[in-house]
Task: structure prediction
Amino acid sequence: MEKKTTQNIMSMDLDEIRIMVKKHGINVCIIGIGRIGLPTAITFANSGLPTIGVDINQELVDMINSGNFPLKDEPSYEQLFEEVIKTKKLIATTKIEEAVHNSDVIVLSLPTPMIDKIPDYSALQSVAEKLGNLIKKGSIIIVESTIEPGFVENELIGIIESSGTLKAKIDFGIGVCPENANPGEIFYDFNNRPRLVGGIDEKTTAIILEVYKHVFPVELVEMPDCKTANAVKLTTNVFRDINIAFINELALMFEKLGIDTMKVLDAAKRKYNFQVHYPGSGVGGPCLPINSYQLLNSARHVGVKLSMIESARKINENMSDHVVKLTSSAFKESNNSLQNSDILILGVSYKPNVKDIQLSPAEKIISKLQNLGTNVHIYDPYFSSDTVFGIKVEDNLDDILPKMDATIIVTDHDDFKNIKISSFTKMKNPILIDTRGIIDPSSAKLEKIIFRGLGRGNF
Amino acid sequence: MEKKTTQNIMSMDLDEIRIMVKKHGINVCIIGIGRIGLPTAITFANSGLPTIGVDINQELVDMINSGNFPLKDEPSYEQLFEEVIKTKKLIATTKIEEAVHNSDVIVLSLPTPMIDKIPDYSALQSVAEKLGNLIKKGSIIIVESTIEPGFVENELIGIIESSGTLKAKIDFGIGVCPENANPGEIFYDFNNRPRLVGGIDEKTTAIILEVYKHVFPVELVEMPDCKTANAVKLTTNVFRDINIAFINELALMFEKLGIDTMKVLDAAKRKYNFQVHYPGSGVGGPCLPINSYQLLNSARHVGVKLSMIESARKINENMSDHVVKLTSSAFKESNNSLQNSDILILGVSYKPNVKDIQLSPAEKIISKLQNLGTNVHIYDPYFSSDTVFGIKVEDNLDDILPKMDATIIVTDHDDFKNIKISSFTKMKNPILIDTRGIIDPSSAKLEKIIFRGLGRGNF
Result:
């Protein structure tokens, strides 16, 4: 464990802090060492700062301390991980007390999920309750979790202050530096994407900037306060949810107008002031849907309506219904009943080329199809032989296709783009539903496959 | 006038057409020579093709034929205009019969306005009715006006066929090449922006491509049909209406959360997959609002709902109410009554640096303020001494400011960015409302101006 420290970095001037950081004399603790928190902890430790990772998951902590890298999806971190564990620059623990008490900088990388479409900040709230008692004078707390604008100012500070005796701005500093990483690309993003830094006062912001400058080789964008930084993070993500919804809604209309949305977008993206987004079976993952509900929650608190975001969520969540509708219509055309049919879901990840099913539209599509009496099978190379949504994932596409009536492409993993269209003719029926625009409708027609493409009205 | 022609270009092969175009042996007629149609006609004529411009406006036709350039906003065309008029490569007429009958290519550049938020295609419809009788065999009709996807296929062709004896695809070709020009930047756009070309069949598309390749030095994007081309045009424009609405709605929330939207956007635009749009007092102009209503009209025809676009229109149209609300609140703060106050509107154009008030939010703001009993004045250098919305436009800002209680910046003309903040202190009150984020709120505060910035919660 790192040296005990009694220093108060808030009482130092910035030059002193800069020197302390360079001498690796600042102790860091990362609370929450999951998907984002562990890469964050590795990055801090690799910069030379003594780093301790805290998690309630004893199994994860043991795995990390014994040098077993838990993030197979982020292989770029494997070697760095081994180094910082071997040199004990990074250690993990479940003991938050000791870790926090010995740290100058406390980074919170805790999950902010939803329950019934309401953001759930209980992990942050319960850690904040502990922090009031545990932090030493002069500590800087940095929230990397994605939170609503105002959550630090109106909630976290109050919890920390009322659970201890320390006062914000005087005895401790608090700020935010929202993580900016895409699952599967965390190493690239941590080393390339600008990061926002905002604190409750200028001093706190300046200290965080000094520390992060040392750790992350990226542009740090100084924000006037915490809430503005969080507003930026949510605005940029929800922008995508909004625009996918816009295109999804157009795609449904273009189907009826006999227009191929993919051809529209291919031409549209040549326009200098248009940014292309693609239609699909829904928007999932650990960020976008939750970020939209976070802004809706903020709006509720101040009594305004965000009708664009409300509409967007509704549209994107209903796309799974449309996928089922396309499937029914294809079965009707083939004079086959959905009841007892065998349907293969191609891809369960919420986005291509990652192993991640958080809020994936596949889940809804599967459950709706099962409610219609179909037997749902899954093929997804990222989950070979795993059990996903209660279904054992197939490990050989060629073996399973001849037993299927229909295939629905839900995720556009790159692997799927190489499947020959003729492979699908091996199905009993054969019916092919493409929700991601990766199949050329005319090639499916040539192979006499009964085809439906989401948003593709013209074939 | 150009040579009488009896040739049938549809019966030629593409090589013959290419040669005819190069030899300037294709006669062109542009119906509608207004803001977009005249630059189009000049461009055709300048390419060497004998061009005749048709308009019902006798005054405009006379002006053009006498060599008086009518588009002061598009000065880049002035010299070209003089050349093609002098050499008689371009002539104007009100006589559609003669013009159409002698033309191989007929370009329609007619307005498609709205009446009560419903697109009004009557100009196109009534010209189409005439075309059935007037076109000679082998003519190619090209619609440049922005229309709904399917309008050519489901409506225009029928009108042309039923008003004469010629059959589409056999006796005449029809296609679209939606204009892609921004008022004020038409020359640049015509010489740089890709254009979409779609025809009712491959031959028609190919002929249009040959002709346009000769006339416009830009990438021509071949579309599978007319409706897809029109869908692209509308999608790219409505994308902007949607995204402005998204930011407008956030701006209203950020005001309540004490967040400065401009600071949010300044940081957000550094993110690689975010495209910035700015909040404001509304979305006007000859394109965006109408394009949104065109897509809504298409949706109505096929019985689908486009809730994103519906919401966007509502939000953007209500922004003028918010401007009035900000104004009232500033008057309240200054303990002054709106009744009988003098308010200066800075900028009436729908966008900066053009002379164009089509669907400008200024109109609604002015009428709402007048209904509240205020005396509204206008300063806009593009309309000096003109009468706009029934108000004589001031021609000297320094003279008028001391007589004003408040100023509302509605349009962010570049000129206005150079006004010193201290100028506004000359007002009686002084109250300043900035709907375009061009004033630094802290500088207004320093000058003791009562300030409201749209979307700017933090000052």
